[in-house]
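Handover notes (outgoing to incoming on-call)

Open items:
1. Iron-sulfur cluster carrier protein: sequence verified, structure written out, both below. Nothing else pending on this one.
2. Nothing else urgent.
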Amino acid sequence: MPNHRSPFQTTHDLPETDPPDLIAEARQQAVTKLLKTIIEPVLNNNIVSLGMVRNLRVVDNYVYLRLYVGKHQHDLKHQIETVLSQLTWCKKSYVQLCTIPGVRTTLAISSGKGGVGKSTTSVNLAIALSLQGAKVGLLDADIYGPNIPQMLGLGHSEVKTIETAEGTRFLPLEAHGIKVMSVGLLAEPDHPLAWRGPVLHKVITQFIQDVEWGDLDYLLIDLPPGTGDAQITIVQESPICGVLLVTTPQQVAIADVRRSIHMFRRVGIPVLGIIENMSYLRCGHCGEPTPIFGSGGGQQLAEELQTPLLGQVPIEARICAAGDSGRPVTLTDPTSFVGQVFLNIASALDKTFCSIHKLADAILC
Ligand SMILES: Nc1ncnc2c1ncn2[C@@H]1O[C@H](COP(=O)(O)OP(=O)(O)OP(=O)(O)O)[C@@H](O)[C@H]1O
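Iron-sulfur cluster carrier protein structure tokens:
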């Protein structure tokens, strides 16, 4: 038998007298180091840095972790079990696969504060991805202001359920080719959703897991604004590949986004970039921009936190009107200036994730 002793077996050599928690900590570090050798081939980064590994615990001689992946990445579980089998002290590793059935890539849209245009961005981006040929779902998880249904013309629609082998599941609604589910559709119209603590946690997890999406290339999750319990629960309970932060250019909004970015990084969710909304007003005649909320905030934050500025959306009366009428601008006028901004952002995202789909298709064929 070849000697499979791994260079990561640091805890193996610890003196017998080391307190148990020091041993557990050293073992946890050894596990993390090994997990970082597993590279997700298309995103070309390791599964720890991509935020796929969460809730890692070492208890005695056992490793427990959750693996958050898209439906085409289940093979990573086997790779983890193989790599961890190198650890001589590890009797067994328990890898819990966490995925949203049918969904390949889950992206979250977040903002530091309310009212900056997060839902507007979510619906236009969903339409833009769909126009580029992707199958898209949009989950409105903004418990404080669930207005996606209205923005897509689904005002007071009723949610139906179906019975499946896995139990009762919500059927998403459909608008303009996008599958839609919203916490707002589960509440009485005009009544606030007053969930707190464990109840909030349970409702949100059930809400993420119990929707019958069918096959989706992208699921966009419109998060509640800020960095409270609800956001943290949602990002920790979903296989989110990355988050897009929406901000307006003024300094107070930027400060809140900075806090949000730090929160996402702390819980290990990659930040894919910043979208600056209401960046400027375009002159109706010559297109000259006037930065009425100040300028440069998004760019400054992008440089400071080393994350790309994915796009700048101008203030336009028809963006607001489109939100009220249920027909987003990117749908009604994709060649307009605003439509092009969203299509460019969607195309940049698809450059990163579409190849995943192609690769997965190639593997499945
Ligand atoms: N670029 C824009 N130009 C004009 N109006 C806009 C623009 N972006 C958003 N709005 C309008 O601003 C209002 C708030 O936008 P939206 O609901 O998308 O914000 P939000 O960040 O999701 O808010 P909340 O967090 O409270 O749900 C809406 O009426 C929307 O139509």
